[in-house]
Amino acid sequence: MSISFNSVDFIYQAHTPFENLSLKNINLTIPDGSYTAIIGHTGSGKSTLIQHVNGLLRPTNGTVDVDGQVIKSDTKNKQLVQLRQHVGIVFQFPESQLFAETVIDDVKFGPLNFGVSDTEADQRAKDALKKVKLPEEFWEKSPFELSGGQMRRVAIAGVLATNPKILILDEPTAGLDPQGRNEMMELFRELHHSEQLTIILVTHQMDDVASYADNVVVMDDGQIAKNGTPVDVFSDTKWLLEHQLGLPKAASFASSLSDKGVKFSEIPLDINNLVQEIVDIKDRGLNNE
User: Fold this and answer.
1) The CATH fold of domain 1-75+165-230
2) Enclosing H/E stretch for 151
3) Which residue ranges make up each domain of the chain?
């Protein structure tokens, strides 16, 4: 499902003394099947942007087009029911929204809420729990008996049970240790490929952007400041640092070497690329002797 923002403005608390222009003339296309990372400092408009994709927020001006479903300022909730079945959002700490007596009942809630039969909802829940790799021995337990990482998998399964075509991840690894973060990001990579999902990732983890995304959108003061591949975006290291944005560890190290005169053919985004670039530079130096 492709996503297009067309001249979108969004004003919080419009027509009040507290109104705030949060999005300004957003024109953006997110291709079907892509893995897009949205980055930017706190308050840049990232979360406001993603909440327009399923109509949690409606544009004050302009339109959002999701696979032919046009969202405008006056679009009603009843017009968005079908769309919301296909756009799943995983917010920060999604496990805080768990509530049912058992894991399976919690995961079934989403499909049931969209009018699916109990039998189908049960099957969807089981399929989703398998996708997030939560062992069957936990399905009839209370979600509150599980570890934090397992609870997060349950919450993600609840989103997947609605069979979304678009999966929006808003800081999905917040609060997890490094191993848990890596496992979660690998899970999303697998879902992206196996389910052909369009994924939108909001994150401050630049290594995750470099490792998983094929497109990067940089938000700044409610506007799109940059949009391109990870290599395109992270190559402008000076601009990123001036805007209080980090770099992947490999790119940061390469940038420090560049300041000392080392010339890279392309900014390396991970350790393997960094090592290869250094080997190539050494080989070029030997060949020139």
Assistant:
1) Rossmann fold (3.40.50)
2) helix 148-160
3) 1-75+165-230, 248-289
CB 244 within 8 A of CB 41: yes
Burial grade of 123 (CB within 10 A; 0-12, 13-18, 19 or more): middle
Tokens for 114, please give them.
């969209």
- Mean pLDDT to the nearest integer, 170-178: 91
> What's the start-to-end Cα distance of the chain, in Å?
54
Pairing of strands 61-66, 20-30: unpaired
Q: Is 272 exposed, middle or buried (0-12, 13-18, 19+ CB in 10 A)?
A: exposed
Cα(152)–Cα(117) distance, integer angstroms: 25
C-alpha span between 154 and 80 (Å, rounded): 25
Q: What is the pLDDT of residues 201-252, one digit of tens each?
A: 999 999 999 999 999 999 999 999 999 999 999 999 889 988 888 899 999 9
Contacts of 13 (CB under 8 A, 6+ apart): 19, 20
